[in-house]
């Protein structure tokens, strides 16, 4: 998979982008476990992608739910047994 960020919010630590192979839109943020730091990617539709580019509050509400693991069904890649926590 090739994830290409098209928008990045440094202060709130999340990004929006497109997975090049599938064309899926995503929102991602960094997570860390005791060994590494990596990103978790959550699939979103084009309407959410467009909204989140323009509306920071809507994006943050969604990211907060993802960080709390309330939207795990949208994960593009399933985490392993040593899943990290949001940074």
Walkthrough of the structure:
The chain has 87 residues and is α+β, with helices and mostly antiparallel strands. The chain has one domain (3-86). It has helices spanning 46-54, 56-67; strands at 3-9, 14-19, 25-32, 37-44, 85-86. Strands 1, 2, 3, 4 and 5 form a 5-stranded antiparallel beta sheet that branches. The mean pLDDT is 96.
Helix content: 10-25%
Number of helices: 2
Structural class: alpha+beta
What number is the mean pLDDT?
Answer: 96
C-alpha termini separation = 23 Å
H/E element string? EEEEHHE
Instruction: State the domain count.
Output: 1
| Gyration radius, rounded | 12 Å
What is the oligomer described by this structure? single chain
Strand content: 35-45%
| Envelope shape | globular
Count every beta strand, where a strand is a DSSP E run of 2 or more residues.
5
Largest sheet: 5 strands, antiparallel
Spans where pLDDT lies below 50 across 5 or more residues:
none
Short description:
With 87 residues, the chain is α+β, with helices and mostly antiparallel strands. The protein has helices at 46-54, 56-67, and strands at 3-9, 14-19, 25-32, 37-44, 85-86.
What layout of secondary structure does this protein have?
Layout: E1 3-9, E2 14-19, E3 25-32, E4 37-44, H1 46-54, H2 56-67, E5 85-86
Antiparallel strand pairs: 1-2, 2-3, 3-4, 3-5
């Amino acid at each position: 998979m090739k994830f290409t960020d098209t928008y990045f919010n440094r202060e709130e630590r999340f990004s929006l982008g497109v997975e090049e192979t599938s064309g899926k839109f995503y929102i991602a943020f960094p997570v860390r476990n005791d060994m590494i730091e990596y990103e978790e990617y959550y699939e979103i539709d084009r309407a959410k992608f467009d909204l989140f580019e323009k509306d920071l509050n809507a994006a943050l509400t969604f990211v907060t739910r993802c960080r709390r693991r309330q939207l795990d069904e949208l994960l593009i890649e399933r985490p392993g047994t040593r899943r990290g926590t949001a940074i």
